[in-house]
Design brief:
The chain has 243 residues and is an alpha/beta fold. The protein has 10 helices and 10 strands. The termini are far apart.
C-alpha cells in the first residue's frame, strides 16, 4: 500500500537538501530504471502501473496512473518510478581523459554532457562544488541512464587542478583553433566553464593552453554555442585524432 507519507517523501526528493539527507534519488521510466538496476546502484522501492515488466522485484508496489502522476516529476510520466540509493564515488582515473566542469547551472546541460561523455568513452566527470547536483531529476532524465556508469565527482576544482600532474586544457573564445591543434592526449583534463561566463580567470591561469571552436558564420549571431554542443564537437575532434 502506498500512503500519503510515501507520496510526500518522493515529492520532497525534488530538493537537493532532502536527497542528501536521505541518501537517495528518483529515477523514472522503464529504460532508465533498467539501466540503474543493472548497475551498482541499489534500488530501494519501485512503483509501477504494470508490475509485469519488472519481474521478481520484492520491493515493487503496484499503483494506478492517477497516483503515479501525483508522485512523478514529469507532466506525462512513464509507468514506473523508482527510488535508488546513492553510491560511493569511485577514485578518479587520472590516466585517462577527464572532463571538468566549472559552475554548471543548467541540469539539462549537465545530463547531456554526462551522456555525451559516455558516448566518447570518458569515464570521469569532475564538477566544481557550486555546479548543479547530478541527482537533480532533470539531470537524471537528460542523462538517460548514463549517470549509472559515468563516475561523477564534486570537489574544489581549483585545488584539484593545482595538484594535477598531466596536461590541463581549457576552453575559451580566445583559445587556439580546435582544428589546427591536432591534440592527441592519452590522458589529461579538459575544462568547460559556466554557461554564461565561461571559465573563470582563476582556472584559466592553471591551464597549459586553451581551445576554441572557430565560428564559420561571419554574422554577429549566434554569440556562442551551447556547452553540451561544444563538448561534443571538441571530444569528437580529439577522438578523431587518435585518442
Amino acid at each position: 500500500m502506498v500512503t500519503k507519507k510515501d507520496i510526500k517523501f518522493i515529492n520532497n526528493l525534488k530538493q537537493k537538501k532532502f536527497r542528501y539527507l536521505n541518501n537517495c534519488f528518483i529515477v523514472e521510466g522503464k529504460k532508465s530504471i533498467t539501466e540503474f538496476i543493472n548497475s551498482d546502484f541499489k534500488i530501494i522501492k519501485l512503483y509501477s502501473v504494470d508490475c509485469s515488466f519488472f519481474k521478481n522485484m520484492t520491493n515493487q508496489f503496484e499503483i494506478d496512473y492517477k497516483l503515479l502522476k501525483k508522485m512523478s516529476f514529469l507532466n506525462n510520466p512513464d509507468d514506473h518510478i523508482a527510488i535508488f540509493q546513492f553510491k560511493k564515488t569511485k577514485p578518479i582515473e587520472d590516466n585517462n581523459l577527464i572532463i571538468a566542469l566549472e559552475s554548471i547551472r543548467d541540469p539539462g546541460n549537465l545530463g547531456t554532457i554526462i551522456r555525451t561523455c559516455e558516448w566518447f568513452g570518458v569515464k570521469d566527470v569532475v564538477c566544481s562544488l557550486d555546479s548543479v547536483d547530478c541527482y537533480n531529476q532533470k539531470v537524471i532524465q537528460s542523462a538517460m541512464g548514463s549517470i549509472s556508469r559515468v563516475n561523477i565527482t564534486y570537489l574544489n576544482l581549483k585545488d584539484y587542478l593545482k595538484s594535477f600532474n598531466s596536461v590541463i586544457i581549457g576552453t575559451s573564445l580566445s583559445g587556439k583553433n580546435l582544428y589546427d591543434s591536432n591534440i592527441k592526449p592519452n590522458k589529461g583534463i579538459l575544462i568547460f566553464g559556466n554557461e554564461a561566463n565561461g571559465l573563470s580567470r582563476e582556472l584559466l591561469k592553471l591551464t597549459n593552453f586553451n581551445l576554441t571552436i572557430p565560428k564559420f558564420n561571419l554574422n554577429s549571431f549566434p554569440e556562442s554555442l551551447n556547452i553540451a554542443s561544444s563538448l561534443s564537437i571538441i571530444l569528437g575532434e580529439i577522438k578523431s585524432n587518435g585518442l
